[in-house]
UniProtKB/TrEMBL annotation:
Belongs to the class-I aminoacyl-tRNA synthetase family. Glutamate--tRNA ligase type 1 subfamily. GO terms for molecular function: ATP binding; glutamate-tRNA ligase activity; tRNA binding; zinc ion binding. A motif ('KMSKS' region) lies at residues 238-242. The gene is gltX_1. It catalyses: tRNA(Glu) + L-glutamate + ATP = L-glutamyl-tRNA(Glu) + AMP + diphosphate. HAMAP family: Glu_tRNA_synth_type1. One of its GO terms (biological process) is glutamyl-tRNA aminoacylation. One of its GO terms (cellular component) is cytosol. It comes from Microvirga aerophila. The lineage of its organism: Bacteria, Pseudomonadati, Pseudomonadota, Alphaproteobacteria, Hyphomicrobiales. Keywords: Aminoacyl-tRNA synthetase, ATP-binding, Cytoplasm, Ligase, Nucleotide-binding, Protein biosynthesis. This is Glutamate--tRNA ligase. It is found in: Cytoplasm.
Length: 476
């Protein structure tokens, strides 16, 4: 048997972080077993489904590195097939026309509310002859669900889950306008796509029972099911926007690397001993459904940041520069003064500076921010802390420009030797000279190593910036 999983999002918004994890689990399981992961867009809600949302889902999956097999299946385009299956159930006596009016359904709802029980359709048209139908009412088609016994889902994560059939009502398969319901469409599509394993959030667990009843009524094999706990916030409440329930593309804009987010998501609810860091191949080799916990996973931004920092330090410098360049169009152009691209000169400077830059940063946005000194326009605007450091230490920099001008071979060690010599000559500690020097050259109180900064900036730019900041008065 070829393992076939599917990811089936509704295109009513971005690819949610929980959806990203569900897609990842489906992808890993298929890869682990040499199978396929299919992608189905469940766009039957025509009012809420949008092209922009579909594109966001496709872009989010691609950025995460999760490819799918074959063409994307669009559920709405299969409506005729869904209707045909509903009518086949009608013909076999496993479904029936229901003519209950909206008013009757509202009365059932009200009665359930009064009695403090869930709303269930009372089956009033289950065994009635359609000849008794009121005139002018378009019927729905309902499943003739079993009323005795139980429906069982042998779940790969939740274990054996049992529902008493008396507690499950006859669900609608086809609406009065001839359109299929979600329950029917999902079953027909999964069957026609030969899906063997349904891996999804545990908010679908009851749907698993209802869909099992539809499979059984059709005489089709029921796929294996695995319902994974949802992601919660650090406080244990259901994940919301304030916790970081953003779209996958928002994490991209925040400067996370896809490989770091992938590694973080795989560890949300799944474990493999104490291992925290996984290459993609290690994830594929180790992933199994039995190691998914039954409790909700808690989202932790600090942990994601630390993991991202690890991946950045391990990344090839060229890879990080390319990732930065891909991020530029999404960042505030006014803040970074970069437009949407890197000039060849700046790209080269970033490459040279990257070993020092990536040691400190936890996101690409932080990385770009700490590289400010490379692309800042002269004269540099000093932030408050840097301005204070320079004001306090300006006198200690007297004469340093002339000494640096005498350096012919401009390297980190050579400029370091001059700065150390200058500090000794004036009876100061190295830091007392280095701090105001850093402020003058970068506009910030912190930066990568000062002598690396000077080496990357080069002789002309370093001296020009010092002249800007250390001249007695602005030019007329």
């Amino acid at each position: 048997m070829t393992v076939i999983t599917r990811f089936a999002p509704s295109p009513t918004g971005f690819l949610h972080i929980g959806g990203g994890r569900t897609a990842l689990f489906n992808w890993l399981y298929a890869k682990r077993h040499g199978g396929k992961m299919l992608l189905r867009i469940e766009d039957t809600d025509r009012e809420r489904s949008t092209e922009a949302a579909i594109q966001a889902i496709l872009d989010g999956l691609t950025w995460l590195g999760l490819d799918w097999d074959g063409d994307v299946v669009y559920q709405f385009s299969r409506a005729a097939r869904h209707k045909e299956v509903a009518e086949s159930l009608l013909a076999s006596g496993r479904a029936y026309y229901c003519y209950a009016s909206q008013q009757e359904l509202e009365e059932m709802r009200e009665s359930a509310r009064r009695e403090g029980r869930p709303m269930r359709y009372d089956g009033r048209w289950r065994d009635r002859d359609p000849s008794e139908a009121p005139e002018g009412v378009k019927p729905v088609i309902r499943l003739k669900a079993p009323t005795e016994g139980e429906t069982v889902v042998e779940d790969e994560v939740q274990g054996r889950v049992v529902w008493q059939n008396k507690d499950l009502d006859d669900l609608v398969l086809l609406r009065s306008d001839g359109t299929p319901t979600y329950m029917l469409a999902v079953v027909v599509d999964d069957h026609d796509m030969n899906v063997t394993h349904i891996i999804r959030g545990d908010d679908h667990l009851t749907n698993g029972a209802r869909q099992t009843q539809i499979y059984q009524a059709l005489g089709w094999d029921v796929p294996k099911m695995a319902h994974i706990p949802l992601i919660h916030g650090p406080d244990g409440a259901k994940l919301s926007k304030r916790h970081g329930a953003l779209g996958v593309e928002a994490y991209r804009s925040l400067g996370y690397l896809p490989e770091a987010l992938r590694n973080y998501l795989v560890r949300l609810g799944w474990s493999h001993g104490d291992q925290e860091i996984f290459s993609t191949q290690e994830m594929i080799d180790a992933f199994d459904l039995g190691s998914i916990g039954r409790s909700p996973a808690r989202f932790d931004f600090a942990k994601l940041e630390n993991l991202n920092g690890h991946y950045m330090r391990q990344s090839d410098d060229e890879h990080l520069v390319n990732a930065l360049e891909g991020l530029l169009p999404e960042l505030d152009k006014d803040e970074h003064h970069l437009g949407g691209t890197l000039t060849p000169g700046l790209r080269q400077k970033l490459l040279v500076a990257m070993p020092g830059l990536k040691e400190r940063a936890k996101t690409l946005v932080e990385l770009l921010d700490s590289a400010y000194y490379l692309y800042a326009k002269r004269p540099l605007h000093l932030d408050e802390k840097a301005a204070s450091l320079l004001a306090d230490g300006r006198a200690r920099l007297d004469g340093i420009i002339a000494k640096l001008e005498a350096v012919s071979d401009w390297t980190g060690p050579n400029v370091e030797a001059v700065v150390r010599e200058h500090a000794e000559a004036i009876g100061a500690k190295l830091g007392q000279v280095a701090q105001p020097l850093r402020a003058a050259l970068t506009g910030r109180a912190t930066s990568p190593g000062l002598f690396d900064v000077m080496a990357v900036l080069g002789r002309d730019e370093t001296l020009s910036r010092l002249r800007d900041q250390l001249k007695d008065a602005p030019a007329a």
